[in-house]
Amino acid sequence: MRAVMKVDKSPGIKVMDTDRPRLGPRDVLVQVKATAYCGSDLHLYKWDGQAVKWNSPIPRILGHEFSGDVVEVGKNVTMVQVGDLVAGETHIPCERCYMCRTGRMHICENMKIFGVHVPEGSFAEFAVIPETIAYKLPPGTPYDVGALYEPCGVAMHAVQRAAPNPGDIAVVLGCGPIGIYVQQIMRALGSDVIATDIKKFRIEHARRVGAAREVIDASEGNVVERIKAATGQRGADIVFEAAGAGSTIIQSLDIVAKAGKVVLFGASPENPTLDTTTYIVYKEIDVLGLTGRYMYSTWDRVQRLVTRGLIDLKSVVTHTFPLEKAEEGFQLLLRGDASKVILRP
């Protein structure tokens, strides 16, 4: 089969032939119909410090956001059958540790990430995944939409962690795909949403999507003062830090109102110094972190909003390529000239 491979520990990828992955007794073989790029794929493409930290096996197939049709199942599979349309949950839990047994499989103590910690990935014609991480999509779901349940699930998890109240003012720092999904979900819940970014492409794209009342260019002027002016000087009830930068983490503590909430889920390579006494203790704010998605309540909630037309998963998609042109997708993202890119094997 054809696949997008990482063959050595240096920048770049190769589109090449490789063996179809083997099916285990509890595995599902999926014919991949659509698969989307994620920021983690860029780390692996560049083979930067984050990729080294992950200790991702080489050679390997990239990709983990996908949907497709089940074409074969292992002999011990009971929840999925041939012909099902599925998307893949990225987290591969051990199902035995304390976190798995107490309802937090997504932060399993022995967690492996599909497309990162195992040789298999979704940038290929076929993918093998454990039955545990195969999520059955509603029949008739477009493949491109199905591939986006996984990233939207991160946004939904962020909102679930925030537990918003009716009429909350929400600020989303970062207008990448997940930031835009947060904006859409919060708007669907009746919140007043303001967003920021520093990248012109993302700012304009977020404005076109239109989920935020205002999208502020944070590279111009004092963004904290501009947001406070837009919120009546009180600040935001909830700030979602979706940019993954030290500067926006610090901004989030300044922007949030007293007794408000800050939700951190952008993966920042920096560890900024924070004035915790002034901004957390004296303001009595809650700082919440999250990774991935609840398995599987988050998926079900995304499905409810998608089915009712309250969020548009394809709104973040700016480019689509065949598998053979995977390099073009990477270059667009590295230049900052795309939002979400989809490959169709």
What order do the helices and strands come in, and which of them pair?
Elements: E1 2-6, E2 14-17, E3 27-36, H1 39-46, H2 49-54, E4 60-61, E5 65-73, E6 85-88, E7 91-92, H3 98-101, E8 112-113, E9 126-130, E10 134-136, H4 143-146, H5 149-162, E11 169-173, H6 177-188, E12 192-197, H7 200-209, E13 214-217, H8 223-230, E14 236-241, H9 246-255, E15 256-264, H10 276-281, E16 286-289, H11 297-307, E17 317-322, H12 326-335, E18 340-344
Parallel strand pairs: 11-12, 11-14, 12-13, 14-15, 15-16, 17-18
Antiparallel strand pairs: 1-2, 1-4, 3-5, 3-9, 3-18, 5-6, 6-10, 7-8
Helix pairs in contact: 5-6, 5-11
Question: Can you put this structure into words, describing what you see?
Answer:
- By secondary structure, this protein is an alpha/beta fold.
- It has 12 helices and 18 strands.
- It has 2 domains: 2-147 and 312-344, Medium-chain alcohol dehydrogenases, catalytic domain (Quinone Oxidoreductase, Chain A, domain 1, Alpha-Beta Complex), CATH 3.90.180; 152-289, Rossmann fold.
- The protein is 30% helix and 26% strand.
- The strands form 4 sheets. Strands 3, 5, 6, 9, 10, 17 and 18 form a 7-stranded mixed sheet that branches.
- Strand 11 (169-173), helix 6 and strand 12 form a beta-alpha-beta unit.
- Helix 5 packs across helix 6 and helix 5 crosses helix 11.
- The longest helix has 14 residues, at 149-162.
- The mean pLDDT is 95.
